[in-house]
Specification:
This protein is α+β, with helices and mostly antiparallel strands. Helix content is 33%, strand content 32%.
């Protein structure tokens, strides 16, 4: 076989057809890459997910690319868009209004994303009667050619993908910024992948066109190589030449956005209660809990009652992106809300109610549903106490504590339950070590100090203390510690017996065994021995366990399921 043929085969094997909905574990299995590596790569792209959480398609594509895979273009979700069109079609034109488009700016670092946003926002502040640049609330709305446009004031992948990772579809138009001197770079390609997989309409801003070495034609040719075809190359993508330094082309860019927004006809029902998404949430020392909202439909007014995720409140004030107090916020517009009971989470949906009674009723129904889910999770974890990995966290700052907790959540899986025994800021002290000794825990410090007394106590009690300054080093070490802990607790005990009834392929390299449990139960975190005609042919851990296409913790006697094993594909019908 020739080298070229080998290359073709390699290319074919690296081509993935990913489902629109999949978990981090599914992605790991399809690529045959360890779950820890997949989770770490997701984190590098701003997605915090554990092995069993659903991952947005665009995030899965980016991770696949990092591991050298190419992904087939997804089929459009016509059912969802058709339903939306039918819903609006049933409403009379008099009851429908057009909302302003929401814009996110993406592109390679240093290509001018922030500069373009600053020029757009700064010019509007200068044009207004309000002097001075005020602190941004994370989004702002301007008017151009008598049309309103909303900009998400945090450029980059985070603004575009972190919301989508939570299911929040906030962006209507993406502006891809490419520097005319550098051309298409690695992060430009990442941004293109984000935009394509989201199916978001696109405008390209070719920035820094005033530089001596600017080459607009080179940029357009590079874009064509990534299936972004400019209008003057026979395609449909508007490309605008800009310079954030001189403000050249900024009005042309805004005009293009207005035109595309008109083409999209972003219709929303008129007489409905306001709803949308939380863009940011933070605690102000003087004002209390604040949240930046983006209204998707309906209106939001001072005095309304708001429910956002787990929190509830009455809106005391609304502030726009230029720090001006407003009484009402219309569809497509952002605002900062004062009056929330606690800090809201970015990506959470919010709903507006006109009475305290209605808001509390809705909030109670949400809380009831979440408690039922938590109860199910607690019940499912009660019988797995032997697989708990306990951790005590000490961080240099209060803000780091929650961040480290979120990182640890990404390491949680069906095999090992991570339990945070204690978490606080400050140095690692003797009390932390004594608590670790009593709870059989390890002590993890992040950008913290370790007191000498704690070191002495840890030696006397054989307690592990680790301190980190870099998050990825912490992840690597903890992953290894968890795996070692799992190995040390493995016992030789037969929990169940199953017979292989069939085999089938999973992805490009994995083979799964279809089985029926004939006695006991098969546990996801168990060790498996496969025998063939009374001879042991394999021993190892379970990679995945499924029942009716669902990932499960166990399968009981009399039930059927599918199993994949680490490092084993050679099943035969009749294997035990």
């Amino acid at each position: 076989m020739s080298e070229n043929q080998n290359n073709l085969i390699s290319e074919e094997e690296k081509l993935l057809d990913l489902p629109q909905q999949l978990t981090a574990g599914d992605l790991s299995e399809i690529m045959d890459i360890s779950p820890a590596e997949v989770i770490k790569e997701l984190m590098r792209h701003g997605v915090m997910a554990n092995i069993n959480e659903i991952v947005e398609f665009e995030s899965a594509v980016l991770v696949a690319h990092e591991f050298g895979f190419k992904v087939l273009k997804p089929k459009a979700d016509k059912q969802k868009s058709l339903k939306s069109e039918l819903d609006l079609a049933s409403i009379p034109d008099s009851e429908v209004i057009l909302r302003s488009p929401v814009i996110t700016i993406l592109g390679h670092v240093d290509h001018g994303k922030t500069s373009i946003l600053d020029v757009i926002r700064g010019s509007r502040i200068a044009d207004s009667e309000f002097g001075g640049i005020t602190q941004s609330i994370g989004a702002y709305q301007i008017t151009h050619l008598n049309e309103k446009i909303t900009f998400i004031d945090t450029p980059g992948h985070e603004a575009f993908t972190s919301m989508r990772a939570r299911g929040a579809q906030i962006t209507d138009i993406a502006v891809l910024v490419v520097a005319a001197d550098d051309g298409v770079m690695r992060q430009t390609i990442e941004a293109i992948d984000h935009i394509k997989s989201a199916g978001t309409p696109l405008i390209v801003a070719i920035n820094k066109c005033d530089l001596p070495n600017a080459d607009v034609n080179k940029v357009k040719t590079q874009l064509v190589e990534h299936d972004i075809i400019p209008e003057d190359y026979g395609g449909e993508i508007m490309c605008v030449e800009t310079s954030a330094t001189s403000s050249k082309g900024i009005d042309d860019l805004l005009e293009s956005i207005v035109l595309l927004g008109q083409i999209l006809e972003l219709k929303v029902p008129k007489n409905v209660l306001g709803q949308g998404y939380i863009l940011e949430g933070f605690l102000d020392k003087s004002k209390g809990s604040l949240g930046t909202i983006l209204v998707k439909e309906g209106y939001v007014s001072v005095g309304d009652y708001i429910v956002a995720g787990d929190i509830i409140g009455k809106i005391k004030s609304l502030t726009d992106g230029f720090n001006r107090s407003v009484k009402n916020v219309s569809p497509g517009a952002p605002a900062q809300v004062l009056g929330l009971s606690s800090v809201p989470k970015a990506g959470d949906e919010f709903k507006i109610f006109k009475s305290d009674k209605e808001a509390k009723k809705y909030h109670k129904s949400l809380s009831s549903t979440k408690e039922q889910v938590k109860s199910i999770i607690r019940d499912s974890e009660n019988d797995d106490d032997e697989n708990k990995f306990r951790i005590i966290i000490k961080c240099g700052t209060d803000g780091s504590v929650d961040a480290v907790k979120k990182v640890l959540e990404t390491l949680r899986n069906e095999e090992v339950a991570i339990e945070i025994t204690h978490a606080s800021s400050g140095s690692v002290n003797e009390n932390d070590v004594m608590l670790a000794s009593a709870a059989d825990a390890v002590v993890i410090g992040f950008q913290s100090q370790i007191e000498q007394g704690a070191i002495r106590q840890s030696r006397a009690n054989n307690i592990v203390i680790k301190n980190y300054n870099i998050v990825y080093e912490m992840i690597d070490d903890l992953t290894e510690m968890i795996l070692e802990n799992k190995k040390s607790e493995t016992e030789e005990k037969v929990h169940g017996i199953a017979e292989i009834l069939d085999t089938f392929s999973v992805g490009k390299t994995k083979v799964a065994g279809g089985f029926k449990v004939v006695d006991g139960l098969i546990k996801r975190n168990g060790l498996v021995k496969i025998t063939r005609r009374d001879e042991l042919i394999h021993q190892g851990s379970i990679s995945s366990l499924r029942h009716l296409k669902e990932n499960v913790r166990e399968i009981k006697s009399g039930m059927e399921g599918g199993i994949t094993l680490d490092g084993f594909n050679d099943y035969e019908i009749g294997d035990i």
